[in-house]
Amino acid sequence: MRRIALVTLVVDDYDEAIRFYTDALGFRLAGDTPRPDGSRWVVVEPGTGAAGTGLLLARGKDEDQRARIGDQTGGRVGFFLHTEDFARDHARMSAAGVTFLEEPRHEPYGSVAVFQDLYGNRWDLLQPATD
Fold first, then answer.
1. What is the per-residue pLDDT across 67-76, written as a single tens digit (0 to 9) for each?
2. Which pTM value belongs to this model?
3. What is the CB neighbour count within 10 angstroms for residue 96?
4. Between the CA of residue 43 and those of 22, 61, 85, 98, 110, what are the distances in Å?
């Protein structure tokens, strides 16, 4: 079975990105390995490590990469964090200082609110509707 295992997110600083994703969003640090070129292989994952998609936090190496930090999708929501308890996670993330760009709303597809990560990338916190 194939799946998308990792998605790269360009960041400014490894350690501040790790703190944000683990402390504010509740992800777990799945790996942090130094590489010979001075970079690091840093992977964070939501949840407990089930077969989902993790984020490879990659520090921008040059001007072109650094210019994309915080705007990897041209201002659109580019990342979707699913939850089984929207109210709990929204409250926890808000208390941890996560910036929500709108009030929670309830759509036919589920409960949702747009937030931004520490660099300005837009995310949906989403509890899908159940049938």
1. 999 999 999 9
2. 0.91
3. 12
4. 11, 17, 24, 20, 28
